[in-house]
Amino acid sequence: MIDLGAASDIGMRTDRVFLLVLLICAIILGLISFLTVSFLVRYGRIRHPGHANIEGNTLLEISWTAGSVLIALVMFYWGLGGYRQRIELPKDAMTVKVTGRQWQWTFEYGNGKKSTVLNLPLNKPVKFVINAEDVLHGFYIPAFRIKQDAVPGSTKTISVTPVKEGTYNVFCTQYCGVGHSFMYTTAVVEPEAVFNGWLQERAPAQAAMAPRPTATEEAEASLIKQGSELYSTK
Predict the structure, then answer these.
(1) Is the pLDDT of residue 130 over 60?
(2) What is this structure's pTM?
(3) Geometric angle at alpha carbon 121, from 15 and 209, rounded to 5°
């Protein structure tokens, strides 16, 4: 089952910032609505058929201006922390090369292994090195709360630490052609031991160098599997 909850350190921080901004906006909306209704009732035409000359209040104007600036600075500070967390790459982060092409994501690991499904170890920092082979794509994992454009001729990086085991959607957020809606896959977060077992399985380059079996049904099945993997990656 696809899990839609925050599944990364950045995701949890992003959710907290979002809730903070939502709370501030709700309080301001409630205050403005209350004052609007109160003024309509208290100073309406029925109670006050005449008009009065109302002058400004310097202290009140300074207060709401300073308060607005303070609120904006608080939201900026919280948001800046999340932004720095995305771009500051941990030294011990595992590197995964992300390549976007029409219309597929390909992921390459340090030992040369490639996959069309993003496999990640739990609670281990990951550095995504993102590029595109043809047109502009958008690498987006909603559960991680990360999105980075994949730009032809340019390399982008972003860091994240998965903190929740599960399977999550991976999308392309830039319209990249007629197959854009089919450019999706999944990210599988699993315990580090399980991930290492998967990673140590023969990489495509190692499989190509391995001795070929005899001309049996097993060899034919192996060739079919290799052809399928080649087609899926190209």
Answers:
(1) yes
(2) 0.71
(3) 140
